[in-house]
Amino acid sequence: MSSHREAPEIAKDPVADNTDVYAFVSPDKPDTVTILANYIPLQGPAAGPNFFSFGDDVLYEIHIDNNGDGLPDLTYQFRFQTQTRNPNTFLYNTGPITALDSKNWNRPQFYSVTLVNKGHTTKLGDNLTTPPCNIGPRSTPNYAKLAGSAVHSLSRGEKVFAGQRAEGFFVDLGSVFDLLDLRPFQNLHLIPSAAANGVNGTKGLSVHTIALQIPKKLLTRDGSAATNANDARSVIGVWASASRQKARVRNGTRGQETATGPWVQVSRLGNPLFNEVVVPLGDKDYWNSVPPAEDKTFAKYVLNPELARLIPVLYPKVFPHLAALKAPRADLAAILLTGIPSGLISGFQNFTGKTQADMLRLNMAIPPTNKPNNLGLLGNDLAGFPNGRRLIDDVVTIELRAVAGATYPLIDHKFEPDAAVSKVTDGVTAANNAVPFLNQFPYLGTPVSGFDS
């Protein structure tokens, strides 16, 4: 999956597990950029009596690099605090929760937002409320309206939301990790079976989302409006992270923990599937601990990806051109580590410089399209992945096809991708999600209720 349980240590710590990051020009407010960072993977909706929540002991951060050095120029920090209103009941709620300040909600959660701008710290919002989880029609009636009331405005003009959302990432999880048995053409697999439709392994599940909608002028290095797609100032790098304090002490008599010391990063995410598929098992935890500026250490895995060697083995005689391709994959390095420079794709660039860093790179000057193509750049839609990442972008198919050779002609015009490359897919799209996306902030859909799951 994009980054759900993608490394041994973070798989043990779901509250700090950064699962997906999205960054796109807001379709209904094109002078802003929306950034979504998801945490706490694979939430079953019927999760009582202790429903999911952000960690009070986790520092959640969204980072923006606007000068291409792989280090944050702007960081939005989020700290959460959970209250227990009635400790003498086992219930999450003692009646219907019809408003965020309802006394029936026994475990409300509040948070603060702090901006770190080149070392200067500014509190943008405090005591902001998250919505409860979607329990069911009796406990959380009219949940969509209730969650909508948890969209807050910050002091500089940003909008923010933090709370449970329907999982937006779609993938045939069961087939991908069963020796890359892609159902639509599993008849060609080394261990064949009849071709079938893809199955969305995340359908009906939930995540916890931190969402920001930020005016473009607050993101550029000089306050410009990002109107020229050829201007380097229009391109930003985006990633998210989670950190815990260095020392944790368990209280043996009360079942509680105390944390102290400096913050240590335990999870991060920029491009989807980077740590999941590109980084090998022995380096995954290390990758989660370092900033993007140090990703030159992992460049060798991008230039010679294991998956590109496995595909021709798992699909014999289907990918002969890919099997014969031995050159370093400079196309993948451009997509994942530096951005795509001008001149390779007509009218497009999201190049951030020579620093190799895993970040979502968004050219903010490229406007949203009225008819988005879920294959993004591969579908000739310049507003889609790997130009940032939209909710509808089929990143699994895009990255599988790129690894299989679809993008190598950008580097070597003589290379001809195998005919099967255009057919590579796990067979799942956003249409396979349990609920649709919203057409306004925070865009991710209303989570399925526990009662209806």
How does this structure look, described?
The protein has 453 residues and is of the alpha+beta class. The protein has one domain (10-432). 13% of the residues lie in helices and 25% in strands. It has nine helices and twelve strands. It has helices spanning 143-148, 173-176, 274-278, 284-289, 299-303, 306-314, 320-324, 330-338, 395-406, and strands at 18-25, 32-43, 58-65, 74-82, 109-117, 120-129, 152-153, 159-166, 206-215, 235-251, 256-269, 360-363. Strands 3, 4, 5, 6, 10, 11 and 12 form a seven-stranded antiparallel beta sheet that branches. The protein has a five-stranded antiparallel beta sheet with strand order 1-2-9-8-7, with no helix packed on it. Strand 7 (152-153) and strand 8 form a beta hairpin. It is globular. The mean pLDDT is 95.
How large is the share of residues in beta strands? Answer: 15-25%
Radius of gyration: 22 Å
Shape field: globular
Distance between the termini: 22 Å
Number of strands: 12
Order of helices and strands: EEEEEEHEEHEEEHHHHHHEH
| Tally of contiguous helical segments | 9
Structural class: alpha+beta
Largest sheet: 7 strands, antiparallel
In round numbers, the mean pLDDT is 95
Low-confidence stretches: none
Multimeric state: single chain
Put the structure in a nutshell.
With 453 residues, the chain is an alpha+beta fold.
